[in-house]
Design a protein that fits this description.
- By secondary structure, the chain is α/β, with parallel strands linked by helices.
- The protein has one domain: 3-Layer(aba) Sandwich (Rossmann fold).
- The protein is about 45% helix and about 10% strand.
- It has 9 helices and 5 strands.
- The protein has a 5-stranded parallel sheet, sandwiched between helices.
- α1 links the parallel β1 and β2.
- Keywords: Hydrolase.
Length: about 240
């Protein structure tokens, strides 16, 4: 009789599938979800997108039939999401996400180029405001969506372990290296996780030096393979006692 290893459902953003040079296929073995799954003798099912916030993850849980098909087989839920929520967002997220829908194409390209030019300057200016200015998703909403993801999955798979991630760090010039929203998001995530019985993956401790010293992707946000390896190994260490106990 054959046995299968654990199935990790990973809800993530581009940090879950972007390497030192580019976005990679979800089955690239060096990506941190696959590093963790391989160390546990199982597989990772990655549901992620560029720029995804916790709200996007909740939308995937409730709207993506691929996620529904996975539910009977999931052994652990990894909420590798929330870091993009902390980034400066001079334009409200709902409006920013409408830019790709603008027509004609010339208008869309002009608006996008204008926003990309303005974003670093606006991020720097808003960072001087109380609280550091607007972010992609406020911490209270981030943890609200994380909790909805957790309760929805555990309603179908009671008792499975849940791991969330503290927001990572960045040195991205497109955001003028501003990350004023991260401390408040970390506090909210820690408080929510403690109350919900969720384990935490400390991304700043694992990848902070790698990113801030310029060893990661030239964009100043995504990671090189050593950081993916470190995060994957740390995740496996968190899950192993629960899954193998």
């Amino acid at each position: 009789m054959t046995t299968r290893g654990p199935v990790l459902l990973v809800l993530g953003d581009s940090l879950a599938f972007h390497g030192p040079e580019r976005g990679e296929p979800a089955d690239e073995p060096r990506l941190w979800p696959n590093v963790a799954a391989a160390a546990l003798g199982g597989r990772a099912e990655l549901v992620a997108g560029i720029g995804w916030t916790a709200r996007h993850a909740w939308h995937a849980v409730t709207h993506d039939p691929r996620v529904w098909a996975l539910m009977p087989h999931v052994d652990a839920l990894i909420l590798g999401i929330g870091g993009m929520d902390t980034l400066p967002s001079p334009l409200p997220t709902a409006l920013r996400e409408l830019i790709p829908t603008l027509r004609p194409d010339r208008l869309r390209r002009a608006v996008r180029a204008g926003y990309q030019r303005a974003q670093p300057r606006l991020a720097r200016a808003f960072a001087a405001l109380p609280g550091g200015g607007p972010v992609a998703l406020p911490p209270r909403l981030t943890v609200g969506y994380l909790e909805q993801c957790r309760t929805a999955v555990q309603a179908i798979r009671p008792g499975i372990p849940v791991v969330a991630a503290l927001p990572s760090v960045h040195r991205a010039e497109i955001y003028a290296r501003v990350h004023a929203g991260r401390p408040a998001a970390e506090r909210a995530t820690r408080e929510w996780a403690a109350g919900a019985g969720v384990a935490l993956l400390d991304l700043p401790a694992l990848v902070g030096e790698h990113v801030l010293s310029g060893q990661g992707n030239p964009d100043g946000m995504h990671w090189g393979w050593p950081a993916h390896a470190a995060v994957g190994a740390a995740l496996a260490d968190l899950l192993r006692p629960v899954l193998e106990g």
